[in-house]
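Ticket #4471: complex job returned nothing on first submit. Input attached below:
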Amino acid sequence: QKEVEQNSGPLSVPEGAIASLNCTYSDRVSQSFFWYRQYSGKSPELIMSIYSNGDKEDGRFTAQLNKASQYVSLLIRDSQPSDSATYLCAVTGGATNKLIFGTGTLLAVQP
Amino acid sequence: DGGITQSPKYLFRKEGQNVTLSCEQNLNHDAMYWYRQDPGQGLRLIYYSQIVNDFQKGDIAEGYSVSREKKESFPLTVTSAQKNPTAFYLCASSPYPWTEAFFGQGTRLTVV
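Support reply: We reran it on our side without changes. The output follows.
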């Protein structure tokens, strides 16, 4: 079982829709959770951090964390073509205490 | 401007050659990291440093070496022992170990 799992996609949504990106992790004691956006050929950019159960909103982005289910998600409202990128989930604070990345989900927003 | 600078952006290595990738940060971060990214794969940890003059091997350290003589600098050497070095190399830093990490623009290394 991978430590951090994401569906590779592509996830295709129409412009203006809500994109829902999901991530599960295996280490129950993980404490910190991050979402990065990576455009093709570029480096990852941190867009959201979440540390406690529930929702955290920042503009069009909402991160959701459920530690009991070991599940973290990212919602993007009013999706724009410029949101088309790979979204990486990263988790830290587990037994290894390292920042572990998922393989990413490719999001394609169709105009 | 505060940030993380990696150089060069593109690097070509001949067989049997050692090459060094530069990473400099002016964010006053304690921790620095090197990750490798291959097409269709996630980021894999090569080396990390939580404080000056200390560094630890990550998951794929074989064929690589690092130094951390200054807080601002964490260069990575890809040695001839690394048999498949073609990849996108990413340097990152965080204020404290294993907190929010911020990335440089990356170095794309190709073996010719």
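Chain A touches chain B through 21 residues (CB under 8 Å). Closing as resolved unless it happens again.
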